[in-house]
Design brief:
It is elongated and about 70 Å long. The protein contains eight helices and no strands. The chain has 188 residues and is mostly helical. The chain is 75% helix and 0% strand. It folds into two domains: 2-107, Rna Polymerase Sigma Factor, Chain: A (Orthogonal Bundle); 111-187, Arc Repressor Mutant, subunit A (Orthogonal Bundle), CATH 1.10.10.
Length: 188
């Protein structure tokens, strides 16, 4: 009930051009939209543009007295952004699905739950990686993020050969896995 009242207050604030309400909606929604667009062939600038268009659309909707929001604000904003982004991808020739069949607002509660769960898992993984320590953290980052091969890793970390680097990477990965699942199971 409290979150529903908060959502109504945010919508009222948006309708009245209250900068705090606008800032809150931005803070609570932009990262999700940015992640969606970056994961779907977009850039940070694309995310800003699409989010801005969605905020304008929401603003125009709340200006009309007949508008009734039947979902959470984040679901509504996400669905607008998703539709706008798919439309833009289609215009650029990068999306071949039928956008006309999508409703104006798409039910994305499940997508949001999945996205929020994935973000929580990424946060746990980040904490686990930071608590892993050196040289494991740098070794895993070198292999998985910088895409270094075992030969490069053995030179960079002073291992006698690629097999030793591979063994050390495996040990580090097992430690990371243990740290991740320890923290993951505590969070549930």
């Amino acid at each position: 009930m409290k979150s529903e009242l908060n959502e109504q207050a945010l919508l009222k604030g948006l309708a009245e051009n209250d900068s705090k309400a606008i800032e809150t909606i931005y803070k609570e929604n932009f990262n999700t939209i940015q992640a969606f667009i970056l994961n779907n062939n977009g850039s940070y600038d694309d995310a800003r543009d699409i989010f801005q268009e969605a905020m304008i659309a929401l603003y125009e909707k709340v200006q009309s007295n007949s508008f009734v929001l039947t979902s959470k604000i984040n679901t509504y904003v996400y669905s607008i952004c998703r539709r706008l982004w798919l439309k833009r991808l289609q215009q650029m020739g990068r999306y071949s699905g039928k956008i006309e069949n999508l409703e104006e607002t798409i039910s994305v509660d499940e997508d949001m739950e999945i996205h929020e769960k994935r973000n929580a898992e990424f946060a746990i993984m980040d904490r686990a990686l930071n608590s892993l320590g050196e040289p494991c953290k740098s070794l895993l980052e070198g292999y998985y993020i910088k895409k270094m091969d075992m030969q490069e890793l053995s030179k960079a970390f002073g291992y006698t050969n690629a097999d030793n680097a591979k063994n050390q990477k495996y040990k580090c990965l097992m430690r990371l896995k243990k740290l991740f699942f320890t923290q993951y199971n505590i969070g549930e």
